[in-house]
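#random but structural
TW: two for the price of one
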Amino acid sequence: MADLKERLLPPKPASAINLRDNSYRASASGRIPFQGVDVSGLKKRGQGLRSWIRVDVTGNSQVIEVDKFSMMRRCDLPARDLRLLDPLFVYPSTILGREKAIVVNLEQIRCIITADEVLLLNSLDSYVLQYVVELQRRLQAAGVGEVWQQSEGPDSGRRRGSRNFDNMFGNTSPDYLPFEFRALEVALEAACTFLDSQAAELEIEAYPLLDELTSKISTLNLERVRRLKSRLVALTRRVQKVRDEIEQLMDDDGDMAEMYLTEKKRRMESSFYGDQSLVGYRSNDGGLSLSAPVSPVSSPPDSSRKLEKCLSIARSRHESVRSSESATENIEELEMLLEAYFVVIDSTLNKLTSLKEYIDDTEDFINIQLDNVRNQLIQFELLLTTATFVVAIFGVVAGIFGMNFEISMFNNAGAFKWVLVITGVSGAIIFSTFLWFFKHRRLMPL
């Protein structure tokens, strides 16, 4: 594999190597030139080193510092994909399948998954550390299981060897998942668990607060519900984005086939070594043809040539059918994996939707209560206005009799009582008439 990397990667320029060597060479005066400055680390703006947590196939982890362009060459990724992992910017959840890597941006989990390693942005977040620990545990548990299966006995060794043979040629068993799918599964599980825990915390806080609001409507409770609804909308948007991303991957078979990195790496290596063997065979064949004369006796007959041609065609067809079946099975495995976490994230979304509906129902109930109180106030105001109108009749009578004119009624001592009785009866009749009109028009329940 190291020889393959040396062939594929371009050699380093000699100027850079000489510059690095000269930067650490002491001068004649005994002082190191450019002391305190790492000449090899001089980069343009925006190309600074970043700390990454690397987890390999065996579960070993280490912290490395890699700059942006080295990471781009290492994983064969464009700059816009690495920009999605920048913690200084807020990007929606994304899962991208590339030629040699899978770019994952799911909440706190921002990593690059290849066929051999997982590169995770170093962070002090507990969910990032839990992701690393869980991935190491699963990878090491898988390695222990393989060792245990090999130590069972000769029959189990033959079964294990047949399983390895099947996995090597793409006929994967149901419990087998490549390294990139295991890492992706842990990332999906971490994101779904994080979102579900936030939804659960929101539910625990929301339901008592809403019940308190229905019993006591106050400015403080309304403000708390407003903040709660803002958090709910933001969390629902994030959960919806993760759900849409998983659904989009499930609907596109090409993207799912692109994410099978182990199979692509195996095919690339097999084709590379096949080309190397073919070149060696041709060189040997050419050497023989130059050293030995060509005779009609040594040339193969036409029947053998036809037979070899038929065998090569059949072999190529078998390889193509086997690769297509393997790709179909791999897509089905990834689809089953995505479907499982799609159900989980959909359950979280349904939980948030139910909470939003409960908040909407509470708001409707509060609006109904407020409308009822408003109607009662209107009814009371109507009754008060009617009573004021009746009392105003007494003011009209008093104003009439208070004018400066003389009549014989003023000389009668019992006339004042009759004026009060007649005015009171007239006011009662008028008030009763208004109440009957309100009941007839159904303006208030009487």
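TW: number two ↓
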Amino acid sequence: MKTRFSGFRPGLVVLQVGDRDDSNLYISSKMRAAAEIGIDAKHLRLPKTTTQEEVLQNIRSINEDPSVHGLIVQLPLDSVNSIDTERITDAVTPEKDVDGLSCINAGKLSRGDLKHCFIPCTPNGCMELIRQTGVSVAGKHAVVIGRSKIVGAPMHDLLLWNHATVTTCHSKTPDLPEQVGRADILVVGAGRAEMVRGEWLKEGGVVIDCGINHIADETKPSGKRVVGDVHYASANQRAGYITPVPGGVGPMTVAMLMENTVQSAQRFLLMKTSR
């Protein structure tokens, strides 16, 4: 893109409300990745006192800025005021919604219109990890634990439209170990530390762990360590492939955000040149 259009750079804005430590950590890794590949990324941090209308005003002005091709709203919104997260994510124009969280992009994904939507970055990263194993998704039995809008629900849709038979499990699923035992591909995004035990797994299956949990560990200087939703030590004995936490899905999420931003910039240039 730079060689064809001199001085052109894909533009990304990360909008944050408040100053949560975990959000700051995620944002800094996104900014680093953007700088590394030549994306012009800006971090817009609004104070904790920001109102819903102020957030919406900022989103509207970014929507109209032709130099920005991707806009992500860092969740959760850390404000002293009541803010409707759904309303905020839906305010991002679908063409710049590189997180794939607006109802337009989510609707297209749920209908299988994968070519004309942005796919949420974590599920998209999980699909890429599965592709890298060489295991075909088509015809496999996939189990997804969790039904969040960011991971579980879009993961179900992606696996389904890539021709897997998909079971979604959640807090009301009565026979979780039994369901997990059927999975050729297991994706876990439940938010409960080391919940899935190795003995539940089907021998040789693909295990993707999207969990990030902090548990007490006196051997660490901070007094805690990060673990996933899968008990890694026991699962590693049975799984054919397994992602570590940290370092598995997290970097893939960032990589997919960069890919979506570059794709958005390419679409923008295509529209510009076809006029």
